[in-house]
Specification:
Layout (H helix, E strand, L loop, with lengths): L1 H11 L5 H14 L1 E4 H8 L3 H6 L3 E6 L2 E6 L9
Antiparallel strand pairs: 1-3, 2-3
């Protein structure tokens, strides 16, 4: 757990280059079931509004797009 904390602190302190951060982002994306709200709704046979209001998906914004992460509940974590 200490290693995880150190990595987060290093990211927060700008100790990685943009290329390194993109590599981390691509690796993380490959490990998560993350999609747009609409695509998640299609996959799950639900409505986009149902996905948006559900607390069964963690919603994050990247740029101007909102994504839903399947398997992670929406909560009040600071990140």
């Amino acid at each position: 757990m200490q290693n995880f904390k150190n990595q987060l602190v290093m990211i927060n302190n700008d100790e990685f280059t943009k290329e390194q951060l993109v590599s981390i982002l691509v690796l993380i994306e490959s490990k998560l079931d993350i999609d747009t709200i609409s695509e998640t709704a299609r996959k799950e046979g639900k409505t986009p509004r149902g996905i948006k209001t559900s607390n069964q998906y963690r919603k994050i914004n990247i740029g101007k797009q909102t994504f839903a992460i399947t398997g992670v509940k929406d909560c009040d974590l600071p990140f």
